[in-house]
Amino acid sequence: MGNTRGPEMRVPLWIHVSYESDAVLVDQARAGRVRDRGTGNQTRLCAHTPRPTLPATSRPNQSGPNPWSIPLTDKKKVLITGASGLIGGLVIEHLGDKYDLTGLARRPVESIPSLQADITDAEGIKPAFEGVHTVLHLAAATVGLTEDWESTFPITIQGTLNVYEAAREAGVRRVVFMSSGNTQLGFMFDHSGPYYKLATMREDDPDFPTDWPLITIEDGPYPNNPYGVGKVFGENLGRLYSELHGISTLSIKLGGVLKENRPHVRGIWPGFLDQMDCIDMVDRCINAPDDLMYDAFNAISNNKWRWREIQHGADVLGWVPKGSAEIAAQRDGISPGHEHGPSTPSGYKGYED
Predict the structure, then answer these.
(1) Burial of 144: CB neighbours in 10 Å, binned 0-12, 13-18, 19+
(2) C-alpha–C-alpha distance, residues 77 and 90, integer Å
(3) What's the total number of domains in the chain?
(4) What torsion, rounded to 10 degrees, do the Cα atoms 129, 135, 136, 142 define?
(5) Which of 53, 60, 247, 348 has the least C-beta neighbours within 10 A?
(6) Number of C-beta neighbours around residue 244 at 10 A
(7) Partners of residue 114 on adjacent β-strands
(8) Per the domain annotation, does 228 fall within a domain?
(9) Could you tell me the residue range of the domain that residue 178 belongs to?
């Protein structure tokens, strides 16, 4: 597909929404203008212009960033939805110096300028998208992955549509969509194939596979839970918006990113994704060539028993994972035989809002 450009990127905005007030302060950093939406008053700032005094109810939280000390920057502006989750925190920690990061989350995020809002609120989230180059869409419903349609539909499906619509209206150039290996997890739970055995058997079991074909993206979706269905929807929605509206969309089919950064449940070993491998993939997607309008990549570390291919990410992005389940387990002296079953550990929330 050709490189279809979306609308020109707007002047970057710094947005802070007080948690105690509906007042919104917008600092158009490059133009040096400040507007309070509550009054509509606008002031052009220069070196000798006194800084306006904000009403007490609209002042930024003193523990958060100071809007007047944010430097002018040519860094790419990246909005993180679900910024309060695990991966959002990792991105802020490891990529905060490389990009001009802002956040959108239901919970407060003190480390970067953020809008506290729910992605189910289509109108309420729009201010966060102004002036953004790339949206890193992490927000999703991760509780009750196997049966919870009540949260999957409004958050993972309708919420993702709201994000894409806000991105389109704001002239966002790219969306990096956090998809999931759950989009193909049905292959693992198919007892007739080798992948179930990889997740449930010990290596010394006589029926343990010695070789197996790797599942590729071309093998198609095979979700086995509402969460996976929601992510299949998100991938296809991204492709639609790429074709209709010229928004570059890159989907990352995440493996298991864990807070402890080690696969303490046997079923996680084949699909484990080391935290730094995850951050490297995110970084490469943000910086992928502008004319890469749509693609999807498996993101799994170089695990001995992985069953999804990772070569496509190497070919297109140069992404080569350095971690593995085995390396991570060795740090704590864990054996893959300690726990059995393709179960998901409690607290397995790779990203959330």
Answers:
(1) middle
(2) 17
(3) 1
(4) 50
(5) 53
(6) 10
(7) 103
(8) yes
(9) 75-332
What string of pLDDT tens digits covers the 353 residues of the chain? 444 444 443 333 333 332 222 223 233 333 333 333 333 443 333 333 333 333 333 333 334 443 323 444 689 999 999 998 899 999 999 999 999 999 999 998 989 999 999 999 999 999 999 999 999 999 988 765 556 788 889 999 999 999 999 999 999 999 999 999 999 988 988 888 898 888 888 888 888 888 899 999 999 999 989 999 999 999 999 999 999 999 999 999 999 888 888 877 777 888 889 999 999 999 999 999 999 999 999 999 999 889 999 999 999 999 999 988 888 888 766 555 444 444 443 333 333 43
Residue 3, CB-side half-sphere exposure with 13 Å CA sphere: 7
Enter the tokens of residue 330.
Answer: 């060795």
Extract the tokens encoding 285.
Answer: 């997607």
For residue 287, the domain's CATH number is: 3.40.50.720
Q: Which two tokens stand for residue 128?
A: 């966060």
CB neighbours of residue 48 within 10 Å = 5
Structure-block tokens of residue 55: 């009403």
Length, in residues, of the chain: 353
In a domain, 57, yes or no: no
Asked if residue 30 is part of any domain, the answer here is no
Token pair in block for residue 222? 């095979």
In the numeric block, which tokens belong to residue 211? Answer: 């070789």
Cα dihedral sign, 40-46-52-57:
positive
51 close to 45: Cβ distance less than 8 angstroms: yes
Q: Is residue 64 part of a domain?
A: no
Q: Which two tokens stand for residue 70?
A: 């944010």
pTM comes to: 0.74
CB 136 within 8 A of CB 251: no
- Sole residue written with tokens 């992404």: 319
Q: Is 103 helix (H, G, I), strand (E, B) or coil?
A: strand
Burial 173-207 (b: 16+ CB within 10 A, else e): bbbbbbbbbbbbbbbbeeeebbbbbbbbbeeeeee
Report CA-CA distances (Å) from 297 to 131, 223, 313, 348: 27, 16, 6, 21
